[in-house]
Amino acid sequence: MRRLLRGGSSANEQLTAVLATLLLPLLAIEGATLLNVRSLLDVHAFVGMLLLPVVALKLVSTGWRMLAYYRGAEEYVLRGPPQVALRVLVAPVLVVSTIVLLGTGVALLVLDQTQGTVVGLHKATFVVWVGAAGIHVLTRLPSMWHVLRRRFALAGAAAAVLSLVVGAGVATMTLPAVDRLQDSATAHAGFDGR
Length: 194
Fold this sequence. Notes:
Elements: H1 2-6, H2 9-33, H3 41-71, H4 74-79, H5 84-111, H6 117-148, H7 154-173, H8 175-189
């Protein structure tokens, strides 16, 4: 019981898999809004804000695993490192592009901008991010399914759900800014979104 609550590499792996499972449908919704982003900008921004705590916890979880491995923690070393190409090329690009993509998204919401340099950076970063994320997901899906079939560690599942609840709170608190951004986008296009 103590091991279940204290975690270790197995619990870390499971938390990461649960977070990935939460992220996949949210990212699919976010991607679907791109089909008509001008009219779905409110959904795009809301889901983007909802993603922030979930993505942050996933970055912490994977960062912890990386640090534990390189610090020589036996339990993590025995599991071994990810494939070298994923570790050296894909992971750094994915982490940096994720941070820039979400950061520029938040900046656009704060600045109430639907065009300009930050929008261009947001779009360019998305192109890089989608390539790195695609490779990451395709290489991790088989092991994710295996991890999810094991018995759940309550603490990890609770942390994942809590990140989603916090994300819902953050997204709800930003609804006025999201509404202003949508109004700005629809006014620029020549029609009112209401």
